[in-house]
């Protein structure tokens, strides 16, 4: 199972990092490598999602060995760990047993969480969200750094079990929330052209009312009041037809504020001002 070189872009030298925000990759000394077959990728992904922590044997068996009955699932898991250790050793030159360590009841990937892109994304996204209310310019930089970690859908080429599936859903949702934070930070900062990007996202995700709010504010501030109101009506129709619900209180309040040209819209965003 020889690793294959993917590229040499944007990788730190000397240290090992694991990328899960896109096709799985292991980076070392300026190059990134693919790992295969799928069971090795899935095993690495599960261990990397809990980097630095022991993942129990029973959990790994439930997550990775559900495709068919196994006479001895522990032996099958040990064989998978052996293959993964071999692949990591060929990539890094470090003994595989030091990369994937054995504990009394499980295995541990000996990589700092900060060297796994999912962990770094979560940290940066939280930092950017905390900066948003009082330092939107700084928030823009941090949130853009977080989103730049994505190379495609999370765990794109990993066929794991429930843990991987849940993380795929969580990360996809968090990516959208971070994009919302980024556009709000840009609106608060001023000087950014955000309408086109927001229009595309709002069309793709009509269920996310915050995106619609941000788009309506951006349109209104650009002198496009009628388009802002038309956006509300479009999303309202979608919510009624698809989910059988009315828009939420914040979105309805924003529509009223635009109709009356409330000066609060020019001062602050609906997330913090229109109630």
From TrEMBL:
InterPro entries (UniProt xref): AfsR-DnrI-RedD_regulator (IPR051677), BTAD (IPR005158), OmpR/PhoB-type_DNA-bd (IPR001867), Sig_transdc_resp-reg_C-effctor (IPR016032), TPR-like_helical_dom_sf (IPR011990), WH-like_DNA-bd_sf (IPR036388)
Domain OmpR/PhoB-type: 8-111
DNA-binding region: 8-111
Record key words, sorted: DNA-binding, Transcription, Transcription regulation, Two-component regulatory system
PROSITE patterns recorded: OMPR_PHOB
CDD domains xrefs: BTAD (cd15831)
Family classification: Belongs to the AfsR/DnrI/RedD regulatory family.
Stated name of the protein: AfsR/SARP family transcriptional regulator
């Amino acid at each position: 199972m020889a690793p294959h070189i993917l590229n040499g872009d944007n990788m730190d030298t000397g240290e090992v990092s694991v990328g899960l925000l896109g096709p799985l990759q292991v980076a070392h000394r300026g190059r990134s490598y693919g790992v295969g077959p799928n069971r090795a990728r899935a095993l690495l992904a599960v261990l990397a999602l809990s980097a630095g922590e022991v993942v129990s044997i029973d959990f790994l068996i439930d997550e990775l060995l559900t495709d068919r009955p196994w006479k001895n699932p522990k032996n099958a898991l040990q064989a998978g760990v052996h293959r993964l250790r071999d692949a990591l050793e060929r990539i890094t030159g470090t003994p595989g047993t030091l990369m994937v360590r054995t504990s009394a009841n499980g295995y541990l990937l000996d990589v700092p969480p900060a060297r796994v892109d999912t962990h770094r994304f979560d940290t940066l996204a939280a930092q950017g969200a905390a900066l948003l209310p009082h330092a939107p310019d700084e928030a823009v930089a941090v949130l853009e750094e977080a989103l730049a970690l994505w190379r495609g859908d999370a765990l794109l080429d990993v066929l794991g079990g429930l843990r991987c599936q849940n993380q795929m859903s969580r990360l996809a949702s968090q990516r959208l929330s971070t994009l919302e934070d980024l556009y709000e930070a840009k609106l608060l900062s001023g000087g950014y052209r955000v309408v086109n990007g927001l229009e595309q996202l709002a069309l793709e995700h009509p269920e996310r009312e915050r995106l619609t709010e941000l788009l309506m504010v951006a349109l209104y501030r650009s002198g496009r009041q009628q388009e802002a109101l038309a956006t509300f009506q479009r999303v309202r129709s979608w919510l009624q037809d698809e989910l059988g619900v009315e828009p939420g209180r914040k979105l309805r309040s924003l529509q009223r504020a635009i109709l009356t040209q409330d000066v609060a819209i020019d001062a602050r965003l609906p997330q913090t001002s229109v109630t």
